[in-house]
């Protein structure tokens, strides 16, 4: 059935009104940041079974459903949202999602979305320039950092074992990574056919940062085990702590020893836009491959992640495939040869519209502000009795402890009434509370209120 355009216009208007109210009240911190109704209760409240069985939704019925749906979700625009590394999206990116939802141009094949593909080309050119790869680099946008890491390691595998695509993976490859690396790296090693045992740990300091001085020892361990390094991974920044590895030191070691250098910059590469913090990425241009998520610190909605390589040909070598119904003619403008996905969303439009509205400087100012807010929390926490902060933050992520009790239980107490949402992480085997400052609405008042709530009813350290 063709669209009823009049009905669409009415429903779209209701959508805009509901979302505007939702974001406004979220930014002002009026409702709980999270609700935790069990799935069976929530399904009943939303009338899911009835709607799926009977149909017949009208714009008015949709408006009522959407109001309830949004009310039960997690509010990423809320000042007390301090949890997972997912953006409080800016509205231009939301407009891009709306456009894609209607136009639906899956543009890994150029003829399926020339405008979307061209936007992606230019966004990637901009990102390559920021990293320092210039005209020689290559890139593609994927649906998320996990898929981006997999794609980058496919390129690394192609460099180390060019025949792996056709003949299978040699049994002597190894992936060197710190234990603080994102779980998707180990998952990628298994998917690629290396197996988890091929992931060999790098020596780190007490906070999980790669110890550059001990890299020769790690490489020697790999060789003694009868393996050869496919790639070495560094964090920029670590998912758990938000701390950056020494990219220049690691990159120099990899260059001297002929080891593929991969940087997981999913969260922290956006600091390239901040004059105050870009030094944290010194040496990133030495990486053979890099991932950079826009749905974290570039404020796009989920999911948009870039895979960037220093040499364009390395990315083109990641996939070796034929399909007569897709791969034919001049492939110069098609992206399907660089990505797992064929029906790929118009991802570049989200980044482009955020840039078009805010500019590089505006996005850089956002990064600077969020990093500064996290540092402010660190300063406030250190001034209060009972709080322990194991390191000075380098990003918008801060780990800390209060008291000697169960930090996971403390987190649950903070979330009981939906007043705050934060996560936790282990450092040196010890559980810590963890905040990630994502929402622009988070301010000193929020931070002080969180510290007050944590201290309520808890025994401080040494108490």
TrEMBL record:
EC number: 4.1.1.86
Keyword Lyase: yes
Enzyme class: lyase
GO molecular function, one term: diaminobutyrate decarboxylase activity
One Pfam family recorded for the sequence: Pyridoxal_deC
Keyword vocabulary terms for this entry: Decarboxylase, Lyase, Pyridoxal phosphate
Cofactor(s) in the UniProt record: pyridoxal 5'-phosphate
Family as reported in the entry's similarity comment: Belongs to the group II decarboxylase family.
Name the record gives this protein: L-2,4-diaminobutyrate decarboxylase
């Amino acid at each position: 059935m063709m669209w009823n355009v009049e009905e669409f216009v009415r429903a779209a208007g209701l959508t805009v009104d509901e979302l505007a109210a939702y974001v406004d009240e979220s930014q002002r911190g009026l409702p709980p940041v999270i609700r935790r109704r069990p799935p069976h209760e929530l399904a009943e409240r939303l009338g899911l079974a009835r709607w799926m069985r009977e149909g017949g939704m009208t714009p008015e019925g949709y408006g009522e459903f959407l109001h309830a749906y949004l009310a039960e979700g997690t509010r990423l625009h809320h000042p007390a949202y301090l949890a997972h590394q997912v953006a409080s999206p800016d509205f231009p990116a939301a407009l891009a999602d709306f456009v894609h939802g209607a136009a639906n141009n899956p543009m890994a094949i150029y003829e399926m979305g020339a405008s979307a593909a061209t936007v992606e080309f230019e966004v990637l050119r901009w990102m390559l320039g920021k990293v320092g790869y210039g005209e020689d680099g290559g890139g593609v946008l994927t649906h998320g950092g996990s898929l981006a890491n997999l794609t980058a390691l496919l390129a690394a595998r192609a460099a180390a074992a060019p025949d792996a695509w056709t003949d299978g993976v040699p049994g002597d490859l190894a992936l060197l990574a710190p234990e603080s690396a994102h779980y998707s790296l180990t998952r990628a090693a298994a998917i690629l056919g290396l197996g988890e045992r091929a992931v060999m740990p790098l020596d780190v300091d007490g906070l999980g940062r790669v110890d550059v001085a001990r890299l020769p020892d790690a490489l020697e361990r790999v060789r003694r085990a009868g393996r050869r390094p496919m790639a070495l991974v560094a964090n920029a920044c670590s998912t758990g702590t938000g701390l950056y590895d020494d990219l220049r030191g690691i990159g120099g070691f990899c260059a001297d020893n002929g080891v593929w250098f991969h940087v997981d910059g999913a969260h922290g590469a956006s600091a390239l836009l901040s004059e105050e913090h870009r030094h944290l990425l010194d040496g990133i241009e030495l990486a053979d491959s890099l991932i950079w998520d826009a749905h974290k610190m570039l404020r796009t909605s989920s999911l948009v992640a870039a895979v960037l390589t220093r040499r364009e040909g390395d990315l083109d070598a990641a996939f070796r495939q034929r399909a007569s119904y897709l791969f034919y003619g001049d492939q110069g403008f098609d992206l399907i040869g660089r990505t797992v996905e064929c029906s790929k969303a118009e991802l570049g439009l989200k980044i482009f519209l955020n840039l078009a509205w805010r500019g590089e400087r505006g996005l850089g100012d956002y990064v600077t502000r969020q990093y500064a807010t996290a540092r402010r929390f660190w300063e406030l926490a250190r001034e209060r009795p009972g709080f322990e902060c194991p390191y000075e933050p380098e990003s918008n992520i801060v780990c800390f402890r209060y008291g000697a009790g169960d930090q996971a239980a403390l987190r649950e107490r903070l979330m009981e009434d939906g007043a705050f949402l934060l996560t936790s992480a282990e450092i040196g085997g010890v559980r810590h509370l963890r905040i990630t400052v994502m929402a622009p609405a988070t301010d000193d008042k929020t931070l002080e209120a969180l510290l007050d709530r944590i201290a309520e009813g808890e025994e401080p350290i040494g108490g």
